[in-house]
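Entry for the shared binder. Reason: the reviewer on the internal report wants the predicted structure included alongside the sequence.
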Amino acid sequence: MNEKQQRIWQTVLQIPAGKIASYGQIADLAGLPGRARLVGKVLGQAPDTMQLPWYRVMRSGGQLAFAAGTPHALTQQQLLLAEGVVVRNGRVAKEFWWQPDLAELLFKLQY
């Protein structure tokens, strides 16, 4: 594992249940601005034993990460619904977006 992977995985692990974040937001919080695509790639490399909540990471407009109707999109939607996140037309409303407060940024996201 390299440092960038670790930073991305640790950031995704901080997203609270019932909240979502975008690939770009994760990249920014991990200290990797402009690397949203890297976030997507690294999420796919996470070991299953990590139990990474990958399904909480969305496209920039709050859209599901996968094409509508695909098995991955349906799985992502089901996992989000189980946490109380409302998904309408493949999109999540802004009220469910994770906005970490200063304490989270200072004490939980340490790189």
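Summary line for the report: The CA atoms of residues 69 and 90 lie 9 Å apart.
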